[in-house]
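idk why but the lab printer keeps eating my pages so im just putting this in chat instead. protein + adenosine-5'-diphosphate:
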Amino acid sequence: MNRIGEELERTHQSADVAADGEPLDATLAEVNRRLNARLQELNAIYTVGKSVTSSLDAREILDRVVLASVNLTQADDGFIILREDGRLFRRVVKRQGNRYTEHQHEETSDSVAWQVIRSGRPAMLHRETKIATGYLARALLYVPLEAPGTGPMGVLGVVNRHKDIPFAEAQLFALSTLADFAAIALENARLFASREAERSRLSGILEQATEAIIVTDPRDRLWLWSDTAARVFGIDAQAQGRPLDAYIDNPDIRLLFSQTRQEGRIQHAEITLDDGRVFNAQLSTIETVGHVVVMQDITHLKELDRLKSEFVSTVSHDLRTPLTTIQGYIELLDRAGPLNEMQTDFVGRALNSLTHITSLISDLLDIGRIEAGYDLEMHQLRLDDLVRTTVEATQTYAINEGLELVAELPRAPLWVLGNQRRLRQVLDNLISNAIKYNRPDGWVRVSANQDGEYAIVQVRDSGIGIPPEEEARIFDRFYRVQSPETEDVRGTGLGLSIVKSVIEKHKGRIWVQSSMGKGSTFTFVLPKLDVSRCVSPVT
Ligand code: ADP
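predcted complex ->
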């Protein structure tokens, strides 16, 4: 039973005792009077308790508690002493005759206060207070201030300095109940103040950030944000504690949050705002804090990328036409008359360079087209057939290089939804790399399989391998591994970036595993088509 319940019970019992031997009406009237008086008192305590615990301002709490203590106990004075770093300080006092409280920060050596704090029990004295407290009072009542789990944090006290009236049980009860409310409220205020201090420290750091940064609590309510975020999303000072959705109604951000809930701590996404700006966002989950979204404005980078692709594709197109003409005429040179040995050598070199530049340009054109989504019509196709025909077509190249090239195919047809020409380009690139970066008498194996929902293709070779620190970069445009083994191998550094773009356009993934000097395995997976729905084979 709580303190209030116990008190009502006690009132009832004392009324029972008083009833012995008295007329029933009088007894009942007395019981009623006492219960009413006690209920009024409890009601007053409850009202004060509610108002105290609703505040997060320590000063306001101290004021309300001391005023209520003096009122409820009819004492001359009231005060609160708080413990700080092992010392006691008188923090607020209400003196008789003054309407308002005084706030102070005065150290006190009140030994009764120490005793109450150490024992955790109240003290009620009459006429012996001078010795105990160092000042003259005729009666005093001190109760400890202690919130659950905090240990005694101070004392709530009332004294009768002028009137010689001792305090009684009922006042002890009222004061103890108030002290309970006060201690919880003070502890809440302390926690809130320390959270606010932390918040303003972080907020100071965030203000300077050029990125749009938003921190939410675990229930996705706004807690902190940078100035940039405030400008971009129109977050105002009233947003504190409001749901993120109320301020940011963006489907990309909503998706990012739901992905984090389902898939894990850190998620990345590109976020497009209604006004066309594009942000690169990373959302991280931080235990006990909530979520942090860091967004970088990449609108200008996107625009540059688009301009660059447009430029590259226009220029490459315009370059390819005259180059084809040049190549045609060079090839016709020996028809114009016999060439001597030196002329034949020069024509051969010119043709070699032309082939290189033409393949560079056609790769660049391809990248532009693939990224723009051109020539990517998807049809149902058999990936196993595509692997077989590509391997057959590359066989002569492999034999000329002194390599064994084998296809390992599944028994059942492997259907996918894809673009035949582009997937052929992927296989061509991977197989020709496996041949180019191989060793004499080596081998290349190309396998197609299925695993659950996916079709899996692997191109394995017994070649030079890729240094582990370069594995992630070989899919970047123009990136080529610089080593003595690759020095003489011709290439543009664009093949794998085309491969990656094509696979991603097919909603697949590609990766490489390699061991230096032993060989590499390139694996790509594509969503498999349900066989029962694939009735018409596609050539
Ligand atoms: P490149 O035209 O240079 O072959 P790619 O984009 O196809 O361009 O490949 C990028 C780089 O990755 C190559 O220059 C090479 O260093 C490395 N690479 C690709 N495939 C293999 C492989 N099978 N074995 C070893 N290295 C490879």
